[in-house]
Amino acid sequence: MFDWNTIDTVLLDMDGTLLDLHFDTHFWLTLVPQQLSQQRNIHLHAAKTLVEQAYKKVQGTLEWYCLDYWQQALGLDILTLHYSIAERIQLRQDSMPFLQALGAANKKRILFTNAHPKSLSLKLEHTELASGLDAILSSHETGYPKEHPEFWRHGLAKFNLDPARCLFIDDSEVILAASRRAGIGHQLGIMNPDSKKPNKRFSDFPAIDDYHLLLMDSRSTPLS
């Protein structure tokens, strides 16, 4: 799938790419509406409608990913709610073997995430993910989400990266496209970000549902 001799750095999304997206799916689509329904004493269906409308209003912006924004917008203690279901935070089963193989092959492993720093800290606290990474960049440090070209300009400059020799892995086709426009040389989609949902399809990028496929792909230059 890839000639690893042409790749020095692997840029990785977190939620849905290295971690099971089910935590976030459950949190934002189930727990938040439930809590809003109880707090405002409204029907659950009405709460879900309010939440969905609020989400659509800022989708693709930095606010969409900001816990502080949602705490103010919804009037809920978003961080405390995160901690209340922290046991649901799980690594994908194939993530650490892949990250370890990249490290053994001297490939730089950098997390490029839209996760808010408070959410990022919680997820690193409850997993061994940090041990498989060389560096981390949250979009909140740059002031722009990964959907925006300024995020990529900032990230590439911060780590002095040659974009042509980077592979970016994400479960969002929109964000993969943003990375390509920024000059990133290689993209890969993740078809099964949420373990409780069917695989998704990618139109414009190669995609996999198991990192072991990269490790075993006889058509590519072996990682190690």
From TrEMBL:
Protein name: HAD-superfamily hydrolase subfamily IA, variant 3
GO molecular function: hydrolase activity
CDD domains the UniProt entry points to: HAD_like
Record organism: Shewanella denitrificans (strain OS217 / ATCC BAA-1090 / DSM 15013)
Family annotation (InterPro entries): HAD-like_sf (IPR036412), HAD-SF_hydro_IA (IPR006439), HAD_sf (IPR023214)
PANTHER family reported for this sequence: ALPHA-D-GLUCOSE 1-PHOSPHATE PHOSPHATASE, FLAVIN MONONUCLEOTIDE HYDROLASE 1, CHLOROPLATIC
Alphabetic keyword roster: Hydrolase
